[in-house]
Protein: Protein kinase domain-containing protein
Organism: Dipteronia sinensis
Amino acid sequence: MEKYQLLDEVGAGGFGRVWKAVNKHSSEVVAVKMLREKFHSWEECLSLEEVKSLRILRHPNILSLKEVIRERDDSLFFVFEFMESDLLQVMRSRAEPFSDSEVRYWCFQVFQGLHYMHGKGYFHRDLKPENLLVSGGLIKIGDMGSAKEINSNQLLTDCVTTRWYRAPEVVLGLENYSFKVDMWAMGAIMAELFMFKPLFPGRNLFDQMLKICSVLGSPTPESWLGGLALAGGLNYQFPQLPGVNLSSMMPSASWNAIGLIKSLCSWDPNKRPSASEALTHPFFHTCYNIIPPSLCVRARVNNTTTREEFEQIRSCNRNRI
Ligand code: ADP
Ligand code: MG
């Protein structure tokens, strides 16, 4: 760590503390995350999901890991590109909720990062505003500490997602939930960007389900047959509530935005769109207006977006706000 000079502490979370730092040789500004846990071997470090996934994932909308450093006292540091802020801080620093086009601008980028991540076989499992890092108009998915491989056959017993963004199947304790938990979290985040307060702010697991039912209306055999069976097996009864009109909760959201939030927050994970399906939702149609169709198709088919392609998409977005 001698080559880095720590400047200010910029964040702290469950797994560590994060500093803004500067590389003494190159003057590059970076973010250094020091993990709370000690690591007694390199194998242990390399088996961390955050390291495993970030060694593979390279995308303009995913925070890039530059270096992993293990000190003699077994402490572990991750060196990341530095980002000015996170989406929670951005929300806190503004008086007005985001407009429809601003929400489109942020979410279009995040869905591209997610589309790439899911295509590479990883899901995040802890999407929330403070894990979405923002710098100069770019947004990147950070904190891969809870990521998992989609096809690992492990039972996902650990309930990692922060409660407010936790999908109902995870709240009910399902052990083989899918990457669709990320899509649920994105629905909750999108709504929060319009409301500037969380959509489902549960105080505990029971209250979490109550909050979800009070907004969406309780699940029915049509909306989530599997969930009713799951609840039956647990002897759990969903609170019987009619739900509310989402448009009344977020008056500035367009009809298309509400439609996308509703489908992302479908009770049944199978009914939630994938990230690539979300990108083709009418809410994002204006994002493709000035991109040649061949480019859009290539970006989607290849499952990657090159820097050049991304810049075009970004400038397209910037022009629309
Ligand atoms: P944890 O796993 O402990 O939650 P995170 O990686 O989410 O750690 O980092 C905690 C906080 O630190 C973030 O919410 C963010 O505010 C800040 N942070 C993380 N990475 C960066 C970065 N690359 N640049 C600037 N700030 C960061
Ligand atoms: Mg975090």
In short: Residues 291-306, 316-321 have pLDDT under 50 and may be disordered.
